[in-house]
Amino acid sequence: MPEILFSDAFLVVVxxxxxxxxxxxxxxxxxxxxxxxxxxxxxxxxxxxxxDMPTSGLLLFAxxxxxxxxxxxxxxxxxxxxxxxxxxxxxxxxxxxxIDLPLMTDWPNRPRQKVDRLAGKPAQTYWQFDCRVDPPSxxxxxxxxxxxxxxxxxxxxxxxxxxxxxxxxLRVHLAxxxxxxxxxxxYAPAAVQGRSSRLLLHATQLKFAHPETGQALHFxxxxxx
Length: 225
Known about the structure:
Structural class: alpha+beta
CATH superfamily: Pseudouridine synthase
Helix content: 10-25%
Radius of gyration: 18 Å
CATH topology: Pseudouridine synthase
Number of helices: 5
Number of strands: 12
CATH class: Alpha Beta
Number of domains: 1
Order of helices and strands: EEHEEHEEEEEHEHHEE
Shape: globular
Largest sheet: 10 strands, mixed
CATH architecture: 2-Layer Sandwich
């Protein structure tokens, strides 16, 4: 059972572990998933968004079709803010940036996605160094944060804020700019895949207005890496 962080009559927020699908998969053996497990406790739970199977962190569910529609509209209107933490290969030369690369399904190689500047759908991701791992007084925070992982093979710990929500967006975007996520079996070179036993990507924050009361909600989950 995923850790339940919040529940009321309208929604449920859980902390999904890595390796668990958000919804049932098509392949045999993928019937077990986060939504099915949460439905054992809350029978009216419905899916609103998803996390990739190897991604861990905050996952929001609706209770009932009315709330599902309201939260789905909030996602479409970009009224739900999401933040992720990732550890990527090599140290970016800048401290922050915007990745603006359109994405589409790589049909011959599904479920892979790819950058396609002509046929792809718009996709944007803001990123910056995660300086929270070091004291705020450190003036050289980006370098210190980056050196936290793999001294002999430089890696950077980044905060990611997706503007859009395309499939595999964060993983494809970071790989496209030369900084694939450690442990990414789909988009990282073999040497980068092997630097972690799991995908080092975690959904760490969700901010949105409660669909019934309008109350501002802010959920946090620390990355386990």
